[in-house]
Each structure stands twice: as structure tokens, then as C-alpha cells.
Amino acid sequence: MTLGLLALLSTLFWGLESQSPPPPLPLPLPPPPSSSSIFNAIVALDGSGNFMSITEALQAAPNNSDRRYTIQIKEGYIMNIYTWPWIRSTRHYNSKYCWSIDASAVATSISADHVAFYRCKFDGYQDTLYARKGVQFFRDCEVYGTVDFIFGNAKVILQNCSICVRKPEDIQNEVTITAQGRKRKHEDTAIVLQGCTINVSQELREREPKVRVFLGRPWKNHSRAIVMSSYLDDFTDPEGWVEWNGNTEDIYFGEYNNRGPGANMDGRVKWAKILSEYDVSNFTVRNFLHGHEWIPYEIPMTLDLL
């Protein structure tokens, strides 16, 4: 398969210099690769790169090239809205902030085939990360949000990522991490969390009345989400998952080999599935994304089960 197929990636990057970033999550990020030779473009607000904006770096990408175009985005605040044109697959190595000011605004929307994100931070509230469509891989990333903050209908795996639930608005007493948008049974899409750390912010932990934290709810009639080999904080609701429109017959929400105080399956809703090793083998980087064929070798990954 040709590496880096053409993809449309429309992404909104926000920054707030006046805001203090959220507290760091307990899962440390590995250091970036030491060699800069793997990057075609480096974006840095301090002038240490060869571009000052993501848009400029993307506009410099060659058209109709069969080679991957790689962009490094150095840490900093990007204070513009970007619409990305038709591009080759890209990957990001240094942590950065993707902010949404509005409590229910999408911070990052991705419509892309064969796109990988490495060591990125997505900060928002409701609807933070919209994995809209395509084949997507996130490794060693951090995602913050309140309601449905990882959602969409892509074939997407978040591997070894830190997922932090933030305190919602005062009128909200329930929050949901995922909202998968699979409309038809034949669609081969799903949101997969593999080897992730799922916890809550200190502000949420201290709020009264207590907020119920669910792994997800079905956005569409055939929603499919899998949480496997992950750590679940004690604030994870014992029921695990919550209904949206009352129809759960065709919903596929499953868990496998999770750990932590929130991983006990005894109190889960009846329509949640306890998956076997055979079941989840279909949702690995190798079998679900065919990641061994296109994910850049510089990004560490586990192709099979953890």
C-alpha cells in the first residue's frame, strides 16, 4: 500500500495565552526523536523552525507527491483557526495545545485517512476531539474534556494516551468520554482506547454533588467503542456506559483486560460486553488500522494486544 495517501484534514487549533494549562497527567510522555532529519518542516513560534504557522508549512508541501510530508510542531500556543488543504499524512512530535474556548465547541476536527498524531495535547470541554472519518492513530497524546469529548465515526485507536475528564458546568451531573457515530451495522468504524490512563481532574473530584463519569454513550444506532488494557480511575461510574436515545440493541460497547478501581465489570449495564482476547484482536493497530503498513516507524506503537 502506498504510504501517506491523500487526505483532507480540517483542524481547528486554538490557543489562550491568558489561560493556564491544565495540571499535568500522571502518564509521562517519552522524549521526541533526537534526529531532526525526519522532518520536512518545523513550525515554531519562537522562530527556531523554518515556519511560523502550520498553514505556511502545509502550503509548502509538494502536490501529488508519493512521499510522506512530515511536520514537527514545537510546543507553544497557536492562536489562529486553520483549515488544512489536501495533504499527505502528517505527524506531530512535540506537545502542543489545541484549545476550545466555548464549552461545547469542537477543538479539533479530523477528516483524514492514514493520519497519525504523536505526543499532542488536545484541550477542550464538550466535543474536544472530533475523529470525524478516516483511519487515525493517536499515540502518547493527552485529551481533556467534559462531555462526548472523543467522538466521531473514524476508524481510530488512541494508544497509551492520557484521558482526563474535567469538571463540567454546574448544571451537568453526568459526563461521557466517548460518543461513537456508527450509523450502520456494515460500517467498520469504532473508537478504541488501548493502554490508556483514564482519570479525572482535581476540580471534578472535589465537586459536589458528585459527577457521574461514563466511558461513553451511543451517538448513533450502531455505535461501537472498545476500552482495553487501560487504567480506569475510581471515578468511573460502576455502570460504565449510559444510554442516549434508549435503543441499545445494536450498540457494541466492550471492555477487555482493564485495571484500576473503575475496571470492575460487576455493576456494568447489561448491554455492555465483556470481550475475549479473540474479540479484541480485531481491534488492534495491526488488524483494525493495518498500521504496520503506514504508521511512520519513528512513532512507537504496539501492533497487537498489550
In short:
Keywords: Aspartyl esterase, Cell wall biogenesis/degradation, Hydrolase, Secreted, Signal. This protein is mostly beta strands.
Strand content: 25-35%
The unreliable regions are 1-36, 77-102
In angstroms, what is the radius of gyration?
Answer: 19 Å
Outline the biggest β-sheet.
Answer: 7 strands, parallel
Judging from the principal axes of the Cα atoms, what is the shape?
globular
Structural class: mainly beta
Please estimate the helix content: under 10%
Keywords: Aspartyl esterase, Cell wall biogenesis/degradation, Hydrolase, Secreted, Signal
Pathway: Glycan metabolism; pectin degradation; 2-dehydro-3-deoxy-D-gluconate from pectin: step 1/5
Enzyme class: hydrolase
GO molecular function, one term: pectinesterase activity
Report on the architecture of this protein.
This protein is mainly beta and 306 residues long. It has four helices and 22 strands. It has helices at 54-59, 202-206, 277-280, 285-288; strands at 7-8, 41-43, 71-73, 86-87, 97-98, 108-111, 115-118, 121-122, 129-133, 135-139, 142-145, 150-152, 155-159, 162-165, 174-180, 190-194, 197-200, 212-216, 224-228, 231-232, 252-256, 272-274. The strands form five sheets. The protein has a seven-stranded parallel beta sheet with strand order 7-10-13-16-19-21-22, with no helix packed on it. The longest helix is centred in the first third of the chain and has 6 residues, at 54-59. Residues 1-36 and 77-102 have low confidence and may be disordered. Residues 1-18 form the signal peptide. It is found in: Secreted. It catalyses: [(1->4)-alpha-D-galacturonosyl methyl ester](n) + n H2O = [(1->4)-alpha-D-galacturonosyl](n) + n methanol + n H(+). Its EC number is 3.1.1.11. Keywords: Aspartyl esterase, Cell wall biogenesis/degradation, Hydrolase, Secreted, Signal.
